[in-house]
Amino acid sequence: MDLATSLRPCPVPLLIAHDADPTGRPRELPGQIRVRRGVYVPVAPWRALAPWDRYLTRVHAVAAVRPNSVFCLESAAALCGLPLFGEPRNIHVYDPVAARSTTFGDIAVHTSRTPRIVSRHGDNDVVGVADTVVDLARVLPPAFALATLDAAIGPGSAAHLTLDTIADRLACRADGSRGTRRARWAIDKAEGRAESVGESVSRAVIDWLGYPPPTLQRTFRFEGVEDRVDFFWEEYGVAGESDGYGKYSADAVASVIGEKRREDRLRRHLIGFARWDWTDAMRADPLDRSLAAAGLRPERARQHGMLATLRRNPRSL
């Protein structure tokens, strides 16, 4: 099946109201903030949302006032639980009969000569996950495109996609070659064992820094305890860990203590151990220093052009 079994609900309650009072002035609702004409959310929960959940709220607000919309690209990704990177600028809808793609306000309407597979969910349609990841792989910065594909085929995905299915959807595209090479790169690098966005982005950066490819999710048994690491370089005896968003549970103190004991145990038995976070990977040089300090050596020259794509995502605020 190529579609998510269910869509993500709105993170905060939506209040649908007439946008103006009888005088024609915008309505002010105490304790509420307007996210779209006629759609309000509570101020405090809104301000507490992560950027991607703010975007999901905006998508649901459009769905509330524009029934029968067909969401695509980042909007479909938000609803289907695929990763987002920051807060995307536009709400994306698909209109197969439109004469051309256009944008009004923050709504981007897309058309295509290649029909998309669409799933019906209540009053709104969503472009299928295979088409969505192909569409995103053609326009996102490459590391983010890779993370999107990894999420679609990974162990936590409800879409049950294969790389062959995604490659077939890319081959069906009749709307020019824009982004096709980028999408093929992401498909070639996608890995079903990847378990987080940070891990996927790190893998891309490691490749562009010239290091050899690691084995993912390697399990060790030391001192009677089973430990799994994100990355392992067998030839060097070096393990690597990518700390991303949500790395620790709500019981943060216990999690940090347990992680420190785990890391110490691995360091006692491996030649080298590297740890980095999302910012280190996105800046590239700190990740490079962590890998070099653990004993790894680049085998190829840096890909400066690919590393430059980490600097900004023009599709997000």
Verbal overview:
- By secondary structure, this protein is α/β, with parallel strands linked by helices.
- The chain folds into two domains: 15-189, no CATH class; 197-308, Endonuclease, Chain A, CATH 3.40.960.
- The chain is 38% helix and 19% strand.
- The protein has helices at residues 43-48, 51-65, 73-80, 129-137, 142-153, 163-171, 180-189, 197-208, 252-269, 278-283, 285-294, 304-308; strands at 15-16, 32-36, 39-42, 70-71, 91-94, 102-104, 107-110, 118-121, 124-127, 215-222, 225-233, 238-243, 272-277.
- The strands form four sheets. The chain has a four-stranded mixed β-sheet, sandwiched between helices. The protein has a three-stranded antiparallel β-sheet with strand order 1-3-2.
- Helix 5 packs across helix 8.
- The longest helix has 18 residues, at 252-269.
- The two termini are 33 Å apart.
Descriptive tags:
317 residues, Endonuclease, Chain A, four-stranded mixed sheet, Transcriptional regulator, AbiEi antitoxin, Type IV TA system, single chain, 2 domains
* Weakly predicted, low-confidence segments: 245-253
Q: How many extended strands? A: 13
The arrangement of helices and strands along the chain is EEEHHEHEEEEEHHHHHEEEHEHHH
Mean pLDDT metric: 87
Q: How is the biggest beta sheet arranged?
A: 4 strands, mixed
Total number of helices: 12
Into which percent range does the helicity of residues fall?
Answer: 25-40%
Question: What structural category arises from helix and sheet content?
Answer: alpha/beta
Give the distance, in angstroms, between the N- and C-terminal Cα atoms.
Answer: 33 Å
**What's the shape?**
globular
Please give the domain count: 2
Strand content: 15-25%
Protein name: Transcriptional regulator, AbiEi antitoxin, Type IV TA system
